[in-house]
């Protein structure tokens, strides 16, 4: 299976996983919920569109996708750990900031590595975009599956309290907290990708530019 086809399969699976939330909490589709779910589908379509124009044999793609998979795997592991460990849950705010820094670092590393290898600004930015796309494609299904798996567990209440879910729910005006949480996951399914692409555009461009300022190595040096 080619990388493009793999992304298509993952995208379809993630839309199905997101939509599955409406089967357990039908109220999630009320209000803006349907639009939030459509946003998830559009985010997955964007992932497919972003990987389509480029040759998947390129070292640039391998660098970006590889770093993205590692970053997404680490972020996903943290999500699971929040349900399993009260210690991790209690540190969720601090960990959240560490994750943001980690996403920036992933974009910078991918961009700088590709730019240095290919001596190309475009290669660096492309690698940063791929890093954020594959981080997202790895992270999002883990978030959904973790919630579905622990949905009726006392750990979910602990996670909600640590992350301020109850406060957000009270301000939302909704009456069904589980429907609210599903809508929140749908919103995250769009926002997370867009935030990652902004990170790739800003920090990826900066990181891709710096290696180009270095002198080219002498032939045979």
From TrEMBL:
Transmembrane segments: 34-51, 63-81, 93-116, 128-150, 193-214
Protein name: Uncharacterized protein
Keywords: Membrane, Transmembrane, Transmembrane helix
Top-rank taxon: Bacteria
